Input
Amino acid sequence: MTKNHRNESPQVKRVCILGSTGSIGVSTLDVIARHPDRYLVVGLSANSRIEALFQQCLVHKPAFVSVTKENDARTLSEQLIKAGLEVDVLVGEEGLIQMAESDQSDYVMAAIVGAAGLRPTLAAAQAGKRVLLANKESLVMAGRLFMDAVFENGAELLPIDSEHNAIFQCLPKPSVNGRSDFFNSGVRKILLTASGGPFLNTPVEELSSVTVKQACAHPNWDMGRKISVDSATMMNKGLELIEACWLFDAKPEQVQVVIHPESIVHSMVDYIDGSVLAQLGNPDMRTPIAYGLSWPDRIDSGVPALDLFSQHKLTFSVPDLERFPCLRLAYEAMESGGSAPAVLNAANEEAVAAFLAEQIRFDQIPSITEQVLNAHQCNEVSSISQVLELDKHARHEANQFIKALS
Ligand code: NAD
Ligand code: MG
Output
């Protein structure tokens, strides 16, 4: 990656998108395409959807791309040459890391799903980039190490998860590259909203027979399959609770999950004087993506204005931890601290993959995750290699339980 990508002005921010073919990646490209004067796409990546990546290259003409497999890299290189495009094609995790830390980019959108996002996202933080964080799993796995990397390297960490982006917008003074002490400056609680997913009102006894299609059909948001299943079990909210603790230096008891099925209020901050600040909007990820890209300014995201008059009712209720044991497991893992959240994340990823492959039932996702956590001896985590080792071990354990069931 030696060639300098075009001759852009310093005001133009050069953006690299890790996971550009996914739901967040595509929404990011949509926002960027609305502002060619402000943003330039320099890097894109895909795991398996190589044709989609090629099409993105034709439109955005990046300097480099990264794919997982060698043979995909060869095929793509040939296609790009035929199309007359000069694009460096990188491969594997090393390719993603090289992209994330390249001095040809200013902003890195971390939109890979799951643990595969950890090392590239961390590399972006270590390189002092503005990191637009959609990949919540990296904070769940390596919270302390990740936040230290952000502060030590002067990176800017902007939350893209809609709830965290909302909280960020409602907090006293935006602080992205200095440690903030929100809970000593008037914040009483973070109110993390959750839609409750497709099974909020399904009789609990029916959860054992729900299908992959039903679990992936989120009532309000159009997302990738893994996060859709996480939303259905509410593990997504559990991961977000952990994410919020790291991002805003909160204790688990300072984060209250609030069921809000309409997904209009994206989260709130409760202050000691009785004020509650909320961020509202249509459920469309382009809003938080645009805010992450433009902060502290605002830009058009393509999202229509919220029509308050068409909202008949906004409702709020307390989550039922018996219906959603994954949420309880996440609270417990964050309270245990140390290695527990990384184990929770790995076990959940394996259980969700097994459910998507129709090897286990939906209600077995929490039970497998819980069994792996119960068998785990929690300890402190001091390096990324330790996190990766824990991740590998927990996946192995989860697969033992999955095999026993299927
Ligand atoms: P997705 O499944 O639609 O896309 C995932 C992207 O990651 C794809 O580009 C894919 O090519 C890439 N990828 C998958 N496995 C990979 C691997 N092993 N190595 C390299 N690349 C790989 O997922 P998504 O819904 O866009 O979610 C992405 C991240 O954003 C997740 O961490 C999710 O929790 C978070 N997030 C998503 C939404 C949403 O609305 N979709 C909202 C909030 C947070
Ligand atoms: Mg979210």
